[in-house]
DNA sequence: AATGAATGAGGCTTCATTCAT
DNA sequence: AATGAATGAAGCCTCATTCAT
């Protein structure tokens, strides 16, 4: 009710997000397994025990990070797709742009690499991520591709597989940044990378005038 | 004198490859950190201590896996590129085909995901892989692209960045198989995936007749 | 408020000294290498992991034992030397007496043998001990000898070397007790040993009336 | 019989002493526990298994080192004492001189430190050394002291204890060299050290003209 | 709500000793 | 006589989780 709650109170209510920020930072930096909950707590300025007051265990903490940070962006993209009425390639560009702004340019950019790295050893986390993020994300791209093929804007291809091919470079851009990039002297510019990807795609997807192969 | 060496001796000579096979299997299955050397030894049918007779430590074992399994394929591709005289896109296809046969369809297919997963936490292994595999692999693709641009076969683009974009779907295909694929009901067919990727690329890279955008 | 802190708290404050006591006992009994941290923990009534809450590793635990137990005695001796104004031999006796009371008659008596035994294999511990204990201890004896020679109380000799000769029997008394003494039926009495040592020294160091040899 | 045996044969007969030399070197350098039998074998130019053909185990190897290297010197000193007829202090000097030449200036110099370091953890080795070396060595010095006291050359003191005091600096000289000396910038000269020790002793042991204390 | 002390299972690595060849 | 491959017990250290205060 009051505009400015007592500092003590404000602090308490901020705890969860402070913990999530700390967890995201460390998960992304060191991976799920290699992240010590003690470090997460320390970064959030609380004790190890406190963390367990908010999250049942390491798995729950991770799910909360995804829940708060990634899933809302997927939802935004679903809204963008739902209201879009222009050409299909433009929709692909809009989806990419929002993803890039909300994920690619934030600390969440490290999540895809993290999931890829730990999926095998933490099947439950993998499943959670797959169902809430990946399948919904793929559905968005699949929708745009299918729409473009039906309208004659794109040539006809196997949609599900094309989704993977189209998404791959975007994921790899993030994965690379959080893995091997440390070995590279000059990291390539993301803007250029994405532009080239979309350029190749624009021309690659387009239905040729006379030809109809593939 | 005899054509068949004593069993003891035969064993000794077979050990390294038996250990490497076991190591590859487990590294790919569980990752570098989560693989227990005791399990590697057990899978090779020896005791924990025996492994150390052949490989100094976990790092050395891993490097040996790469050394024996991946680097020779890179070398083969370098030979292929050196003797190639046809069009540049064809060279890209040859390189991909050899990589796919020797890596993509063998147990080594899991290595790229492994490297991506552990690079940050094992910088020395990452560097070893980067210098011996990645930089040489990128140089091969860069050479083909540069050659195609110079001959007018491809349109002009930033070579280094295009290399990343071109390689990304191939890496993601493998990475996916060893990470999230377990959550997927129907895994997409690699042959289709690679054909679509190359089709998009053939048309995407080609220099347009009149246009000169990008 | 209350004079008696909560048990948990009391425990926490007592832990370091309980651990140091256990460590000293086992180090002295079995040596640095042969002492198992699990045994130290057990002797202090805690688990293996708890030890690591207080001391980073085995080295740090050892250093703490020295820090808490030996270095203060060296400091006391430095104070004794600083305020001493009597004859030099008397100072030697005072230094020996304090050392004997605080080290020779306590569990710390085993440290010199431990250092001698492990110095080669643990150079960093050796250096720590040398700089904080040995060099300061030698400086004290050297000071007393030099003073005695300058005043004419002692004959002139190479000070640094004489320090070693003077200290040697005292160290050997302790070293022996923690090494070969187990083989001896009748251990010789330390009081007698030290008295003989000091008697030989009193007469041996004294400047002869007329002679001036050596 | 032949003056020059066949190389093969010579080699075989030399094995034990080659192994003992290697063992001595490594025992003295790293201690008993820290010495790896594999390293001993390698230094002797044979395989690990061969070592076990000559010595039953690590203990037996150690005992052989003592047996061959130290005990003969003790026997020599017993002969020296048996035939000596001069003054008692001179006998002490002769014993010391032979010990110094045969032990102090050879690789065996490291044995006393080794024994002191490992006695507690290897009681059987300690007992072997005590009975064959220490007790006989002490008996020699005790004999010389007793003889000197009876002749009036030395003042009267508790013989057994005085033996320890007299021997201590000599042992410490060697012990130091193989332990803390690595921390010292300038190691003191053994010749000077021994001269000062004997000088202090000559004057310290001598029976005063009138006094008769102690 | 918050603390932080305590636990103990788990993995890499070493090395004396054995034994088939 | 000689080899050297193989074994497996042992110890340091980490960290998710619990729980008394």
Low-confidence stretches of chain A: 1-6
- Strand-residue fraction of chain A? under 5%
> What is the helix tally of chain A?
10
> What kind of sheet is the major sheet of chain A?
none
Distance between the termini of chain A: 63 Å
The number of distinct structural domains of chain A comes to 2
Structural class of chain A: mainly alpha
**Helix and strand element order of chain A:** HHHHHHHHHH
Largest binding interface between chains: A-B, 56 and 57 residues
Helix share bin of chain A = over 70%
Mean pLDDT of chain A: 91
Q: Could you tell me the number of beta strands of chain A?
A: 0
Shape of chain A: elongated
What is the radius of gyration of chain A computed over CA atoms, rounded to a whole number of angstroms?
20 Å
User: CATH class of the largest domain in chain A, anyone?
Assistant: Mainly Alpha
Oligomeric state of the chains present here: homotetramer
Name of the CATH homologous superfamily of the largest domain in chain A: Tetracycline Repressor, domain 2
**CATH structural fold name of the largest domain in chain A:** Tetracycline Repressor, domain 2
Describe the protein in words.
The structure is a homotetramer of 214-residue chains. Chain A has 2 domains: 12-57, Homeodomain-like (Arc Repressor Mutant, subunit A), CATH 1.10.10.60; 70-213, Tetracycline Repressor, domain 2, CATH 1.10.357.10. In chain A, 71% of the residues lie in helices and 0% in strands. Chain A has 10 helices and no strands. Chain A has helices at 7-30, 37-44, 48-54, 58-69, 71-83, 88-104, 111-118, 123-151, 159-177, 190-205. In chain A, helix 1 crosses helix 2 (37-44), helix 2 (37-44) packs across helix 3 (48-54) and helix 5 packs antiparallel against helix 6 (88-104). The first copy, chain A, is elongated. The termini of chain A are far apart. Chains A and B meet through helix 7, helix 8, helix 9 and helix 10 of A and helix 7, helix 8, helix 9 and helix 10 of B. Chain B binds a DNA duplex (21 and 21 nucleotides) through helix 1 and helix 3.
């Amino acid at each position: 009710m009051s505009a400015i709650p007592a500092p003590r109170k404000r602090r308490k209510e901020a705890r969860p997000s402070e913990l999530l920020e700390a967890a995201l930072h460390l998960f992304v930096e060191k991976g799920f397994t290699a992240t010590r909950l003690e470090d997460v707590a320390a970064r959030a300025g609380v004790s190890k025990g406190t963390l367990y007051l908010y999250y049942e265990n390491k798995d729950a903490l991770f799910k909360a990070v995804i829940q708060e940070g990634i899933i809302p962006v997927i939802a935004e993209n679903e809204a963008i797709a739902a209201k879009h009425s222009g050409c299909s390639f433009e929709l692909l560009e809009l989806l990419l742009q929002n993803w890039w702004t909300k994920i690619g340019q934030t600390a969440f950019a490290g999540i895809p690499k993290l999931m890829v790295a730990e999926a095998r050893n933490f099947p439950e986390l993998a499943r959670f991520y797959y169902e809430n993020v990946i399948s919904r994300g793929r559905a968005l791209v699949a929708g745009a591709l299918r729409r473009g093929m039906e309208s004659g804007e794109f040539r006809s291809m196997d949609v599900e597989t094309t989704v993977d091919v189209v998404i791959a470079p975007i994921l790899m851009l993030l994965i690379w940044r959080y893995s091997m990039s440390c070995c590279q002297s000059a990291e390539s510019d993301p803007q250029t990378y994405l532009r080239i990807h979309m350029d190749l795609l624009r021309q690659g997807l387009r239905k040729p005038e006379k030809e109809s192969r593939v």
